[in-house]
User: Which sequence fits this backbone?
């Protein structure tokens, strides 16, 4: 229980730091601003349409709102879903929070290997808190298990890079 409280305290402390770390795109920028100023209902009105367009910052902030019950009823399942969607889009803050949710079993079934994978991906993007979580999760794992998780990270990164390349090629005008 103490470890769980320590992890939750660290997540809470990183709450506003993570919001700054998530890249706000034009669609969700006003919602993020409203959120930072405590105007949660206005934030919700801006963030929901941006999330429908897969704006990573909007997904991350909606995850935070549902996680902490800010302007909405606290709902760990919805929070985890928003974090998952942002994580899959490559957002380091979402990857960190989704990994933490998986580690704790908050809103999702607990899965330490997938938690470590998402946290490693986030840490490789420079998310310092994620690296701390990776160290804690993998400290007592057998080296073969850590190796398997690193392979999962590499596979995800290769697939994500290929997907980004395809999206960029489709967005570029043909000569």
Assistant:
């Amino acid at each position: 229980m103490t470890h769980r409280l320590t992890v939750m305290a660290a997540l809470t402390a990183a709450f506003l730091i993570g919001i700054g770390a998530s890249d706000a795109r034009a669609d969700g920028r006003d919602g993020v601003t409203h959120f930072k100023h405590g105007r949660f209902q206005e934030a919700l009105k801006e963030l929901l349409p941006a999330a429908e367009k897969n704006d990573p910052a909007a997904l991350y902030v909606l995850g935070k709102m549902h996680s902490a019950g800010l302007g909405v009823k606290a709902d760990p399942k919805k929070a985890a879903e928003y974090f998952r969607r942002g994580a899959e889009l490559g957002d380091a803050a979402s990857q960190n929070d989704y990994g933490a949710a998986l580690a704790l079993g908050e809103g999702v079934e607990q899965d330490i290997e997938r938690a470590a994978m998402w946290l490693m991906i986030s840490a490789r993007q420079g998310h310092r808190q994620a690296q701390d979580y990776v160290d804690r999760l993998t400290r007592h794992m057998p080296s073969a298990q850590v190796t398997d998780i690193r392979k999962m990270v590499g596979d995800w990164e290769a697939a994500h890079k290929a997907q980004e390349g395809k999206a960029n090629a489709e967005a570029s005008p043909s000569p």
User: Anything to note?
Assistant: Residues 2-169 form a domain with the Serine Threonine Protein Phosphatase 5, Tetratricopeptide repeat fold (CATH 1.25.40.10). The chain has ten helices and no strands.
